[in-house]
Every structure is written in C-alpha cells, then in structure tokens.
Amino acid sequence: MRGGIQICYPQFGDCGLLDQHGFARNKIWVIDEDPPPLYSNESTGKSFVDLLLKPSEDDLKLWPHSFEFRLRVSLAVDGDLTLVSRIRNINGKPFSFSFAYHTYLSVSDISEVRIEGLETLDYLDNLSKRELLTEQGDAITFESEMDRTYLRSPKVVAVLDHERKRTYVIGKEGLPDTVVWNPWEKKSKTMADFGDDEYKTMLCVDGAAVERPITLKPGEEWTGRLMLTAVKSSFCFDQLELQSKGF
Ligand SMILES: O=P(O)(O)OC[C@H]1O[C@@H](O)[C@H](O)[C@@H](O)[C@@H]1O
Q1: C-alpha to C-alpha distance for 133 and 115, rounded to whole angstroms
Q2: Interval between CA 13 and ligand 1 midpoint (Å)
C-alpha cells in the first residue's frame, strides 16, 4: 500500500549517488515555528502547516551541502491542496539538485484513465535508459508499465477518470517536468510494499525538475509549487475557472 505525496530531494530517481529519490522522503521534519512570509494571500482562508528540514550530520556525509528546506502544506475548504517548497542554500558553495512531488493519485481503473496536457511533448523513457522520445498520441492512456519524464510540460495537466467521473487538475510552478509512472502487473509483484493488483487503481503524476537540475548559489532560494484539485469530469478547462482556483 502506497500513497501520499513523497518529496524527492535532493535527487530524483537513481540518477545520482544517493539512494533512489534522495533522503528527504525518509526524514522526520519539524514544525517551522517562524517561517519567513510567503505571498500575502498564499494561504488566506486555508488551513496550513509549515514544516522544516535541515540536513543531519549523516546527510552531510552523503551530500555535503547545507540547506534549509521549508514546506508549506495548505488545504482549502473545497479540498484543494497546495504544497510550496522553498529550498535555500546556506552553504558557502553552489549546489545542484533534482526534485519531484511524487504524487500518488487514486483512480477507479487505470485502463480507463487518460492524461491531457502532455501530448506532442518530448519525454525521457525511464524504461529504456532515459531514451529521448516524442509523445505521439492525443492523450496519454495506459495498457502497460509506464515510467516517463515529460520535458518542459505545461503549468497545468489533467488526469481524467471516466469511471469515477472525476478529473484531477494538477498545477505546478518552478517545476519544468512531469513524471508519469504506473508499475503495471509484473513490477507490482516485485514491490514488497505494494499489492499485486494495486497498480490498477493508482497513478503517479509528479511535478518535477529532473532533466535540468536546479542550481543555487550561496544564499539563493528556489521555490516549487504544486496545486492539486479534484473536479467533476464535466469540468471545462475554462481559463477563468482555473484562475479562480489559483492556477
Ligand atoms: O519505489 P520508489 O523508490 O518509491 O519509486 C517508485 C517509482 O517512482 C517513479 O517516480 C520513478 O520514475 C520510477 O522509476 C520508480 O520506480
């Protein structure tokens, strides 16, 4: 059983010296009692929590770069979820990292799901040594294992779940790429914390910065934002509606 939104930092996947997806997702974060202000209306009318991660001595042995990682998780009354990550270099030297909000979505039946917004884009196929390919279909649908990093993807993509008549709208800022992952049948059987059939009712769509790592000079800060909302599938991608939801 897996779920939630894992923070992949300072490394996405296995493209580096660290363990898969970096160490941040395995850490205990502390409550940030006095976070520096975000935009004035960032969390107006929402419930939110501010979390803080700093590297431990052991982390610094593996990855010798001091940082402060501030994460605000906000939930609106209508269920819209926003995550804002701010990573500051408090090191004497520049450092680079890759990043993803590894987002597990619950779907009714993966074979009936489609993603809109990624058509015609270039992607790295992680199932084939990150070969660079171009998406040909009208929308992304699923009939086998998929593990792709879509490059320079739009600010908003939609995951349409026909059976449940529900659409997830995923917005992102500061995150050029979108990762799409479903392990399908064979890989599911090799994953100890994942049921053999669970691939049928899940899908990961991650706002990410993978192809080009983010570099921070000493004192610099990076911000990456994810907005997740679920709407009825009759929802039309009216720009005004998206804007009213903060996309
Ligand atoms: O099992 P993990 O470490 O949580 O990773 C799950 C998957 O996460 C995806 O984001 C990667 O693209 C896949 O390659 C990986 O298998």
Answers
A1: 17
A2: 6
What residue numbers bound the domain in which 80 lies? 5-237
The total domain count for the chain is: 1
| CATH number assigned to the domain comprising residue 57 | 2.70.98.10
Q: For the segment 214-240, what is each residue's pLDDT rounded down to a tens digit?
A: 999 999 999 999 999 999 886 555 554
- C-alpha–C-alpha distance, residues 177 and 99, integer Å: 10
pLDDT digit string, tens, across residues 34-61: 999 887 677 888 999 999 999 999 999 9
123 C-beta closer than 6 A to ligand 1: no
Q: Which residue in 110, 170, 98, 99 sits closest to 140, CA to CA?
A: 110
Q: How far is the CA of 118 from the centre of ligand 1 (A)?
A: 20
Ligand 1 nearest-atom number relative to CA 148: 12
pLDDT of residue 83 exceeding 90? yes
Rg (Cα) of the chain, in Å, rounded?
A: 18
